[in-house]
Amino acid sequence: MPTPHHIVIVPDGNRRWAKKKGLPSVAGHREGAKVIEKIVQTALDLNVPALTLWGCSVSNITKRTPQEVKFLLQLFKLHFNRLLKNKELAKHGVRVRMLGRWEELFPRDVQKPMHALMEKTKEHTKRNLTFLMAYDGKDEMQSAIGRIAALTTARPNLPVTEELVKQNLWTHDLPPVDLVIRTGGDPHWSAGLLMWDVAEAHLYFTKALWPDFSPEEFTRVVTEQIGIERRRGA
Questions:
Q1: Which residues form the domain of 199?
Q2: pTM exceeding 0.90
């Protein structure tokens, strides 16, 4: 039986992990980046067609201390440069994309490997790896509503259907989300995360802080989802 088509991960708990160990918060972010690489590889091994990872919200970039934001940005730069050299992406036909306001909020040197990664993988069609960078789900919905408003102004009789909404989302060519995994032991939503696409998703909350989230737990959760009927409200 197939694995879930689209898995979203909210990797929460880096700063709390560091605090528990008496370390600066940046140490948690550094360890968290290592876990992302492991989970991406595990998702490839499990043949997950679409994996979306929450990288940061708008408020993570605009409201945290300048020192922490500077570290995060340099960590993103390092991470995406490493991903550029990852031969597994071509092997598995993975297309990489970034969704959010990162082009508005990130320095050009951080944007450079992100643009390069998207350009390098744009022709890949087998799988999707999406990073939500300076993302806010309310931004995405406002953008979709604005586009639809323009369309209906030009074509007053155009029906506003589910299909039309989906076509105007940033995630227009990604499948609906089957499974959301949130680490950190705090079972809440964040900034309207993919609010349209998660409408029928299964939710998994783990007490593990992100740096402690293992490929083994990820594999177990994904495996448990295999064969679950996706009723989509029916």
A1: 6-136+175-224
A2: yes
